[in-house]
Design goal:
With 405 residues, the chain is α/β, with parallel strands linked by helices. The protein is built from ten helices and 18 strands. Strand 1 (14-20), helix 1 (24-35) and strand 2 form a beta-alpha-beta unit. It binds flavin-adenine dinucleotide (FAD).
Length: 405
């Protein structure tokens, strides 16, 4: 059987852990759990779309950053960067596993208002306290280091070129799934349609095939469909599918140095993609929740908003040619833009792994590790992820991340 294929029927009718969703988060949770020496149970990962064609993971821009406003998110990305760059070591030194690097062109946050500049300064202080190498740049410094930017309207830039930039998520994703299978995890093609629970415990799931499978613990790793999955257990979570558009393009005059992932005040972001090609991302001004099957492109947004914004910031991008375009979905936590993880307070064997907006790929190592710790040990052993627990939502106490792209 190919190392990444899914089976069409479960081998057992009961598992210690069932994970709904086998993309980046589900694969991370499965691999970390199966790799824990104290775990000797059975894990089943169920995914309704084993091709991964429509999941968030398949539509990602595949970058990592240290520039967050909360210390916990900085630490999560520090572990992410360490995991990526030491993948083989984390996989027990397996010589089949590639050695990965981060393409450190950095993220460049640009501010054109005093409020925006203050936010960059505040985040900079948090990041530096955590050991990140973020630098603040005046417009003059910006123009000297990155001469292609138009800087007339800018007040401040913020960049970090260590552990920030593009990485090969597919290599990590593939190896999590391959290694998890080698450790006995089953990957099943199927859609969960019902979650049974009794006396404050999840007891199992039902699939469209009619199969009923029992479980000891259940993980919701269903991305933009997270609220639909939670609703099957009678739980309401503030996670919505929000459409995000991506374009890749070539430029008649390529830039003189690598383009950082530039977060422009217009709301558009652009970055280096290939040697002489670039990538832009944006969303519509009104940003409604969409149907999880809606992947239609909005062709006007490129002409009316995105291209004018990037040509204004980088005048060399007046002459560009679009190569590819696609729409994907963030699983947006509308309450405070942060992850929701850990157990439900009453249905205590139902675990969340949801609401990662545009930064779930880089968070997958730390969130997978933390979820495994909770599943196996009933508590966190490394990073304390409890600020992301569901209780903050019912208590109406947001744990806000402001550095959202
Ligand atoms: C355009 C775009 C750019 C992004 N750029 C970045 C970036 O640069 N860096 C970064 O860190 N993050 C980025 N992200 C975010 C990142 O891609 C996501 O946070 C991450 O991939 C989420 O993974 P996931 O496994 O939670 O969800 P998904 O990848 O959506 O996977 C969920 C899985 O659950 C399955 N599923 C759902 N419901 C059921 C059910 N009932 N039964 C069985 N299976 C089910 C689905 O089929 C799917 O495979 C980006 C996202 C987008 C859309």
């Amino acid at each position: 059987m190919p190392p990444n294929s899914y089976v069409s029927a479960p081998a057992h009718d009961a598992y210690d852990v069932i994970i709904i969703g086998g993309a980046m988060m589900g694969a991370a949770a499965a691999w970390f759990t199966a790799s824990d020496p104290d775990f000797d149970g059975r894990i089943l990962v169920v995914d309704r779309d084993p091709s991964y064609a429509n999941c968030s993971t398949a539509h990602t821009n595949s970058c990592i950053r240290q520039q967050f406003s909360s210390a916990l998110n900085v630490r999560i990305s520090q572990f992410g960067a360490d995991f990526i760059q030491n993948l083989r070591g984390y996989m027990g030194g397996d010589p089949r596993v590639p050695q990965l690097k981060i393409q450190n062109y950095g993220y460049m946050y640009l501010a054109d208002t005093a409020v925006g500049a203050d936010a960059l300064r505040a985040s900079h202080a948090v990041q530096r306290a955590e050991g990140a190498e973020t630098r603040l740049l005046t417009p003059e410094e910006l123009a000297a280091e990155y001469p292609f930017y138009a800087t007339d309207d800018l007040l401040l830039g913020s960049i970090n070129t260590k552990d920030e930039g593009y990485w090969d998520y597919m290599a990590v994703f593939d190896w999590w799934r391959r290694s998890a299978r080698e450790r006995g995890v089953e990957f099943l093609a199927g859609e969960v349609t019902q979650i049974s629970h009794d006396a404050g415990r999840v007891t199992g799931v039902t699939l469209t095939s009619g199969d009923r499978i029992s479980c000891g613990q259940l993980v919701n790793a269903s991305g933009p469909r997270a609220a639909l999955t939670a609703a099957m257990a009678g739980i309401d979570i503030p996670v919505e599918p929000r459409k995000r558009y991506t374009w890749t393009f070539s430029a008649a005059q390529p830039l003189c140095r690598e383009l950082p992932l530039t977060v422009d005040p217009s709301g558009v972001h652009i970055r280096q993609d290939g040697a002489d090609t670039y990538m832009a991302g944006a969303h519509s001004h009104i940003d409604p929740a969409v149907d999880p099957d809606d992947f239609d492109m909005d062709h006007e947004i490129w002409m009316d908003h995105v291209w004018p914004a990037i040509a204004a910031r980088i005048p060399q991008f007046e002459a560009i040619r679009v190569l590819r375009e696609w729409a994907g979905h963030y699983a947006m936590n509308t309450f405070d833009h942060n992850a929701i993880c850990g157990p439900h307070p009453e249905l205590t064997n139902f675990l969340f792994l949801n609401g990662f907006s545009g930064h779930g790929l880089q968070q997958a190592p730390a969130m997978g590790r933390g979820t495994a710790e909770w599943l196996v040990h009933g508590g966190y052993r490394t990073l304390d992820l409890s600020p992301f627990h569901f209780e903050r939502i019912t208590a109406g106490k947001p744990y806000v991340e402001t550095a959202i792209i």
